[in-house]
Write a structure and sequence with these properties.
Chain lengths: 323, 117
């Protein structure tokens, strides 16, 4: 909470973004303390990793300091205090923290906990609810992520001209040769990060993990490479149009599994038709769907980052020309 | 004991801090940061509701009777990733606004618009 208050006070946006990363990491530890290991995993990878990075790229383009505003802070404070007190008054009727009798634990949750082992056969209940019971919901989320990626693409994409890159390339070279230790250590780490991403992807049935986390970890390995070796080197490794195709393929894979179960005379996303044994079918369905999620999330994250970075190079070269 | 509600109060305080940043600050990046704080407070709200005393993480294992509720975990897991995607969209908009107006301060943008009219 102290971190959050510090964020309000700071004018330097770089410090604000760093504090936001710390705040995310702290909330991830909250989630572990409250038994939500899958969520903590995601929050640590997304909040403390990717989102900090994106914010940093954004502030390199928009400027680092915040101007003092002439808004009346007292009015805002009054609104906030009134809303806050009303909300706290509202919590007085809520069930106590950790109470097992709370209404939230009465309806569908017992069924997930008691029956998911027979019906799905996957020890991690979060995975079986995510990918099987609520697969349609998750499909919607994946489509939202895909759409957001397309939105960033539409807003920021620039037509690249190779001539502009030469100057930046040489600039990058001089900068990157200075961090020799950093580069070598990272080069050794990247294969392990990628391997870990695959582990998280395919072990999601048994332990915490799954497509969302794996996608983010996979993307972060690529982003790390791009940061240390320069965008042009990274672009030689990662083909942009291929990544865009992959983002769409992930969604398509997810959706088509739903269609397959429809064609076999069951409900949308009922995977028991995928194999003779319903439980094995569920396993296969979850595996494929998590794969679709992982592909989409990883490629959308890479698309977003590359577009931000391209945009920065583009505005930098435009400013150079103006001068 | 009324102190058993402390988890909601933490959430409300965090939420109000985020809300304050959104309404009181003119810088668009700062507003997005405020929204992320607000968003995380909602995540903590959901996860704290899922916690059961004496429960453990919802991964089935031998000899464990009490599990925390897995449903909010699922909802929040996807919400985090969707959150970063929408944050990225917001940042992209901020970058475009900076290019078009030369500033991401709300007042300066408004002044510029008024001058154009």
């Amino acid at each position: 909470m102290g971190v959050a208050i510090a964020i309000v006070r700071m004018k330097d946006l770089l410090a604000v973004v760093m504090l936001l990363g710390i705040y995310s990491l702290l909330s991830a530890s909250f989630f572990v303390a409250m038994d939500a290991v899958d969520v903590a995993f995601t929050e640590a990878a997304v909040g403390a990793g990717i989102s900090t990075l994106l914010m940093l790229v954004a502030i390199t383009m928009t400027g680092r300091t915040e101007h003092p505003t002439r808004h009346k802070p007292l009015l805002a404070l009054a609104v906030v205090i009134v809303t806050g007190s009303l909300l706290i008054y509202g919590t007085l009727d809520m069930p106590y923290f950790g109470s097992a009798e709370a209404p939230i634990h009465q309806h569908v949750a017992p069924r997930y906990i008691n029956d998911s082992m027979q019906e799905i056969g996957v020890p991690n209940i979060v995975t079986s609810v995510l990918a099987s019971y609520r697969a349609f919901d998750t499909f919607g989320e994946v489509v939202v992520i895909f759409t957001a990626g397309m939105g960033v693409l539409a807003l920021l994409s620039v037509v690249r001209r190779p001539r502009d890159n030469e100057k930046i390339d040489s600039y990058n070279k001089s900068m990157h040769e200075q961090h020799l230790i950093l580069r070598i250590v990272t080069k050794m780490m990247i294969p392990f990060i990628l391997l870990f991403a695959f582990y998280v992807q395919f072990h999601g049935d048994f332990g915490p993990g799954g497509g969302f986390q794996a996608g983010v970890i996979f993307a972060s390995a690529i982003l790390l490479y791009a940061m240390l070796f320069g965008m042009n080197t990274a672009r030689r490794v990662i083909n942009q149009s291929l990544i865009q195709l992959l983002a769409a393929t992930g969604v398509l894979l997810y959706g088509s599994i739903g269609v397959v179960s429809l064609l076999n005379g069951k409900e949308f996303f009922d995977y028991s038709v995928l194999s003779a044994d319903p439980v094995a079918g569920q396993h296969l369905g979850i595996l494929l769907i998590e794969l679709g999620v992982g592909i989409t999330v990883a490629s959308v994250m890479v698309i977003i980052f590359f577009n931000f970075a391209d945009r920065r190079d583009y505005s930098a070269s435009k400013e150079n020309k103006d001068l | 004991m009324i102190i058993g509600l402390y988890n909601y109060w933490v959430v409300v305080v965090l939420m109000m801090i985020g809300f304050y940043i959104v309404i009181a600050h003119g810088n668009l990046i700062k507003k997005i940061v405020g929204l992320s704080i607000f968003q995380t407070s909602v995540f903590i709200f959901y996860i704290s509701m899922a916690k059961v005393d004496g429960g453990t993480a919802p991964i089935l294992a031998e000899g464990i009777e009490q599990y925390s509720n897995p449903l909010p975990h699922v909802l929040i897991l996807t919400a985090i990733v969707v959150g970063i995607a929408t944050t990225a969209l917001g940042l992209a908009l901020a970058v475009r606004i900076k290019e078009a107006y030369g500033s991401i301060e709300e007042e300066e943008i408004q002044n510029k618009d008024n001058l154009d009219c």
